[in-house]
Amino acid sequence: MRYTSTIILALSILVLGSGCAGDFGEKWSQLFDRTERKPDESKIHDAPDPTIAPETHYASGLMLERQGNFVGAVRQFEAAVKGDPSMVDGHNRLGMAQTRLGNFGPAEASFRRAIELESDAPALHNNLGFCLLTAADYKAAEKAFRDALALAPDFERARMNLGIALARQRRLGDAAVEFSRVVPAEAAYYNVGVVCMDMNDQQQAERAFREALSVKPDYEPAIKRLASLDGRRTTPVAPVPTNVRPRPAEPTQPSHVTVRANRPIGEMKLAADPNADAPSP
Prior knowledge:
disordered C terminus; mainly alpha; 61% helix; 12 helices; 281 residues
């Protein structure tokens, strides 16, 4: 009887062992198998590219712009406005970078898009005018500057740019008037003279510099400019009749603006912020 029980027990162990052998074998194989295994490619899917926020593109554009990399800045600002077509600052900065590169057509389109989105921002009209002025479209530039000044009569940057646009059209008297609303009369004449020199009109330039000296005989910038026109002339000369005498400012003009004598005529700037330097009337 004892032998029979032992035989039955042994047979039970063998039966149990044979039932679990497959499971244990698979587990041990998984633990100790060092052969290279390839993933199931049917279960692999391409991960989508991470989405970059328009604000991130815009910030990258600003950084590249500060580094003088306007080509890279254009790419980033384009990506910014593509991601957010309503981003006024993005369109404005894109126009600025394109202007720096001399791409006046795309720059004009960017500024006009920004104006469509925010028509009451004087700086945007000024920037459009600056682009057109640089592209030598002086009549259109004049209109843009006047639009800026209609929104903000105290906007000195637009006022100076308007003076340049008028002088470029050889409307020297009107140009002198606009300059004189920002700077003293002698500096207004001087600025007219500088534009005339840039247009290779030495005769009108000399008249404007002489008129500056008729207002302020010791006005050194005009003296130096005259000396550059005639190396023998180092002292003030008597003024001659000219058509660039400023008229008194109209009563509707602002009664006070910041005055800086001899403001450089070349100081034509783009406004980085749509509301920069543009006080409301």
